[in-house]
Write a structure and sequence with these properties.
The chain is of the alpha/beta class. It has a single domain, classed as Rossmann fold. The chain has nine helices and ten strands. Bound molecules: adenosine-5'-triphosphate and ribulose-5-phosphate (5RP).
Length: 341
Amino acid sequence: MTLPADAIPSDDLRSLLQGARRPILLGVAGDSGSGKTTYTHGIRRLLGNDMVTSIPLDGYHREDRAQRRRSGRLPLDPANNHLDLVEEHLRALRAGKPVEVPVYNHQTGCFDAPQIVRPAPVVVIEGLHALYQHLLPQLDFALYVDTDRDVKWRWKFERDVSYRGHDPAELENEIQRREAAYKQWIDFQKTSADVVVKIHESDLGELAHQQYDGPVPDNCYHMEIVTAPVNLHLPALHLPMNLNAAMEADARPFMLAMVPSSYWGKRVNVTHIDGVTPIEAIQQLEEEIMALTGIARDLDSCLVSDEAQNSTMRLAQSLVAWPFLGKVRCLLSQWQHEDLG
Ligand SMILES: Nc1ncnc2c1ncn2[C@@H]1O[C@H](COP(=O)(O)OP(=O)(O)OP(=O)(O)O)[C@@H](O)[C@H]1O
Ligand SMILES: O=C(CO)[C@H](O)[C@H](O)COP(=O)(O)O
């Protein structure tokens, strides 16, 4: 939809969202350990923690870990989840009503007491089945995280053994059983997403064929942000880079490519990033986004710590957050127009 320029609200997004007629719902699907929480983290950081409620769908599993061990069923099976209850809750949240969310505790493998969740202006619904067909009409924006199997299994294995108390041998066995289940029940959801994040091992060696022979920096991945073309109605967004850095002796590898492409029969734009994004570039980019969202540096208490985030991950998070913020702004303009009309 094309809106006239005067329909674009001039106030910052935080203030507008606080007065919006209803919460905005963002669905995030992908496999376990694919990085769903990590890649929506930017929206939280750039809008402010107080503006976002997250609801993990793991609480809607029908069986806890011990029950699954006995039944042999996997949480990826949609029939092993209360997706009807998810739909009911999304409707309520969209209407601004609180819901009683079931909670799954990954440390114990058991369900905890349910929690009352009141929707913040943005509600993130995150889980294996978040973009299932009957849930899509309740969502305003859909994100899918599609991480290559070796990468996601490595992340999952490390996390599940260190923080979720899984037995390594049992987990390895379960991961193998998950392969086919993922293809059958989860993977197809990417075809409905507004943005897909694809994560591969770093391709620095391949991309700079026979040129780059340095070490691949730690935590460095080749990420593709696949975005359906949109008319963003947002101010220009810059990635300012000091090109001198590329000519100095200690230059670090960084690749950025923007490639119009096609994805499951649809026209898309794909932004590829790999290597180490210069930190000043990402800081300035985030400043520009914060000027739009209206989050101030003095709201530090609302900001989520950046320590664990590397600069290229932050660039990927911003590239996910930006089209989402574009959609938010478009909805707010539409509602403002309707209220005036
Ligand atoms: N780019 C990255 N670099 C390094 N580690 C990463 C990256 N993205 C995610 N991880 C690691 O992978 C693990 C899983 O990430 P995350 O919690 O975001 O996944 P998830 O899809 O939300 O998982 P789940 O649904 O199982 O809770 C985390 O331990 C995180 O630190
Ligand atoms: O697919 C998953 C989504 O995160 C988990 O495996 C599921 O939630 C069960 O958790 P756990 O393996 O810790 O018992």
